[in-house]
Amino acid sequence: MPKRTTDGGSGTPKRNRNGTAATPASSPGSKRTLDFFFTNRSLNNSPVDRKPYQEKAENGNEIADEELARKLQAQFDAEYHELNQNNTARQLVQDPEHTTIFDNTGVSNSEADTLKISESDISVAETVDCGVRPPSPSKEVALIPTAAIYGSIATIDFTVSPPKFDPIEHLTALKRLIPAPYLLLTHLFTQVDATRSRIKIINGLTNFIRLLMLLDKSAITSAVWLSTNSIGPPYTALELGIGGSILSKALKTVSGISAPALKSLYDKYGDIGDVAFEAKVSVRTLVDPPRLSIKGVYDTLLQIAVAKGSKSQELKQKLVEKLLIRGRGEEVRYLTRTFVQHLRIGAVRTTMLTALARAFTFTEYGPDCAQDKLQKAEEIVRQCYARHPNYNDIIAGLLVSGVEKLAESCPMTLHIPILPMLGSITKDMSEMLVKIGNEHTEFACEFKYDGQRAQIHYDESGKISIFSRHLDLMTDKYPDIVDVLQSHRVILDSTRSFILEGEIVAVNEVTGALGSFQSLSNRGRKDVQIASISVTVCLFAFDLMYLNGESLLDVPFRTRRELLRSSFAPVPHKFAFAESIDATPLDQDAISTFFRSSIESKCEGIMVKLLDSIAATTTASTRRTKSLLSTYTPDLRRESWLKVKKDYDSAADSLDLVPIGGWYGNGRKSNFWSPVLLAVRDPDTGVFQAVCKCMTGFTDAMYKETKAKYDEGTINVTRLKPADFETPLTPEYYWVPQEVWEIKFADVTLSPLYPAAQGIISDRGLSIRFPRFIRKRDDKGVDEASSPAFLAELYQRQQSRGAEDQDDLYEQFY
DNA sequence: TTTGTCTGCCC
DNA sequence: ATTCTGC
DNA sequence: GCAGAATGGGCAGACAAA
Known about the structure:
CATH architecture of the domain at 422-645: 2-Layer Sandwich
Number of strands: 21
CATH topology of the domain at 422-645: D-amino Acid Aminotransferase, Chain A, domain 1
Helix content: 25-40%
Strand content: 5-15%
Number of helices: 26
Structural class: alpha+beta
Distance between the termini: 81 Å
């Protein structure tokens, strides 16, 4: 049996795009953990006696080889029969052109078919097809030319500039592989993954789509979903439901490698896809399984997503295994990343839209078409996506009517959510005033409520849809909101259809006092019945994007707000307009007062929005390079509102915490400790109580410094939990307490997990919301770290907010 | 039935 | 959610 | 300034296991 070393062979990943090789398992026990992969705690029970990666993996491989190959072969055979009986027969009827893919010739006669495509072809497929075809008896000989074509895919360079990429050049050979092979997509991913250049990434996606348009149009949507870490638009609520647990079980089955050995691999690479790649490389099969197609992979994902009920986990795992078995080389890496919806190739949304726009423009006008034509196309596609965020419909529209008429073929539609306008962070009032414009700029300040954002659609028939910030449909979660709108005369008679936006906040039904975010999240989420609602809410409306059949997106905020206020009638404690004042930069006192009152009302701070569109000006007083927008156009400027929150301010409360442990990071941070476990210190007992993990706020320099200090093998780290540590979490290593880090946060929360300050406030401990590292406190020793009592005091101070009378008294006296 | 694990989605 | 980094 | 990546606390819901 050929000897494989762990780093040798074709399988050495050239991960990190920054050029640094994946950590070699040089130092004994170079390990990483990530909760979401090996969440199974039992794996952590005996970390100390785990052997170094090499030995374990070698052992695993030895077991894997021959025996496993036979096992897999038997499995293939069984599955071919199964598929023959079930899907393939159906496929033969529905899709006769494609049945020749894996036959003797490997030639498809579907050329004509792939050039004409109807809308239905690119919508979600109903048939299930893994891209698997029964092997024909004489395939040994016949597969050679096909295999050569697969081999030639590796020579295609997608990242060259579009004029240098001629899709037709590749067509003749690739046509024999229709439906488009998954390997083609994987090859694109590999190339995109290898560069950080935005230009090359966009080129890659663009040229790939250009090729698919000629090769196999029906694969475009599938490829786009697979490239964007999703399987459908968010508002259709398709969940894969695959996490580290199912994946590690599937990997174990497919590779024959034991769970501990897989964990070692994971520790080494810091990426599940890389683990799968490595694990699968060590598996040799006697006969290669048939190749995957793009559409086949996508359809299997859909099948995984719809699996529900008893034994569904098992079914999902089976389907995952099926794909993994059929995947080869790089395919396995990206299949696996797709399973956890974390492709990490540097192209998520905007990049894909740009690529779509360019691909269709190039195909229509040739690869040398004018720059402004491209730019215009990109604007159109981005705008259409912002108003109708569904790749199925965007691509269908592009195919049917081209880029220029996309707004008509893929229009803004009631009950399809639009992308939300977002706010950018401003540290304090003065930075906000600088960003907003000159002294004549008029703007609105609104309470930033601490609840859940909601986009509400209403049509002439009275149907209501409520969408979350990330465009998930949550109408079922808020039947009380629906009821208020429908039966309390909130919607004025003249208001026949609309899209409005607001914040849903927990409130005291009687007093109208605002509740916390934590209490809002105690509400049920699915199929909530009005009678059983325990957390009452109020909707604070703040914008109106559509009214009586007309879009208001290009209308200035001042007008939208007028229409909002004149189209709805408030109902106490149920429907209100967001608290608001209008101001100019000269009104600093009024703004400060308003900001303080927002905090006292348990809000997070304020949102600042331009009221009117400002004509482009070259006035020297404004330093802004890009003006803010008063229109509702997230496609033009995603973060055109300004967020001012108390905790952004440098004067905000912070904690001085002691780092007491760390986990290995992932991806970009795979060579660093991230996250880090932090603790308060009880000065009476000297005990360190865990408060939170922290992973943000560190510069790379800080990461390196930390890694050097708490390196494996130093006296600063230990596997065994020190007796004076109280933590429910098990980091990869515990750290010897010796530093104090300043950590900022938004709120103190009652924690179901962390033990800090347990017993002072309640039998639950305390934690913090949005922890981030600010700086090291070299001036402080661990005995000067924040105490549980201090943490509890912060919690209490925070709770006393909102009790207005009390606060006023406080201010009078101090 | 009850308890525990896993996942996705709110912020 | 927040934050950092490269383009 | 954009785009993307890496990951925070904490909840309900869906299953699996006991």
